[in-house]
Amino acid sequence: MITLTLYIYTNNIDLHCVSAFETIKLMKPDSGIDSLERYRQFKLNFDVNTLSEAQSELSTLISSSYDLLNPNKESYYIDTIPSIKDNYSHVIEVASKHSSDDHQLYQRIKTKYPKSPLQNLTQSVIWHFLCQHSLSQDNIESLHADIIVTASRTQGLLVNPLFESVRICQLQSAPSLSS
């Protein structure tokens, strides 16, 4: 079983991301955040023996359908995001607490491609904060309390804790394969 992680981003301006970043600048101008990136993440498990087979299967899924991404307006990275800088990045993953969307997408793909070795997939959103300086634990806690997790109409923005979960990620910054 080989797992590939697909990070999808828009080729043009990501209006969700721009809106979130502008709101963060208004809510917390001293946050130290220089920019914000958003990716849709898919973790795909393939029942194959080699990485090249998994990459070939993923390429087939991407090139023959719009189920994972629209190549007219989106591009992708596989397994890493090149802009991640260990000391100056803060990365969170936001996932639905209910996996029905994942299951529906998986079933749609398996219906179209019954011979595909795809065994499972999960999807989430990655928010990548690029910062002016390395964030201390206090900065991170403040970021989560004031900006990330919604607690009221005036506090929090990116995660609705009623139906989404959030976790801090340690993503690699090595070069990746891209479209």
Topology overview:
Layout: E1 2-10, H1 15-27, E2 33-46, H2 51-64, E3 74-78, E4 89-96, H3 100-112, E5 118-131, H4 137-148, E6 164-169, E7 177-178
Antiparallel strand pairs: 1-2, 1-3, 2-5, 3-7, 4-5, 4-6
Model description:
There is one protein chain. The protein has one domain. The chain is elongated and about 50 Å long. It has a seven-stranded antiparallel sheet. With 179 residues, it is of the alpha+beta class. It has four helices and seven strands; from the N terminus they run E-H-E-H-E-E-H-E-H-E-E.
Task: List the main descriptive attributes of the protein structure presented here.
179 residues; alpha+beta; seven-stranded antiparallel sheet; 29% helix
What number is the mean pLDDT? 84
Strand order of the largest sheet: 6-4-5-2-1-3-7
Helix content: 25-40%
Radius of gyration: 17 Å
Distance N to C terminus: 23 Å
Uncertain runs are 173-179
**Residues in β-strands, percent:** 25-35%
* SSE series: EHEHEEHEHEE
- Apparent shape: elongated
Largest sheet: 7 strands, antiparallel
Would you report the number of β strands?
7
Tally the helices: 4
- Please indicate the count of domains: 1
Structural class: alpha+beta
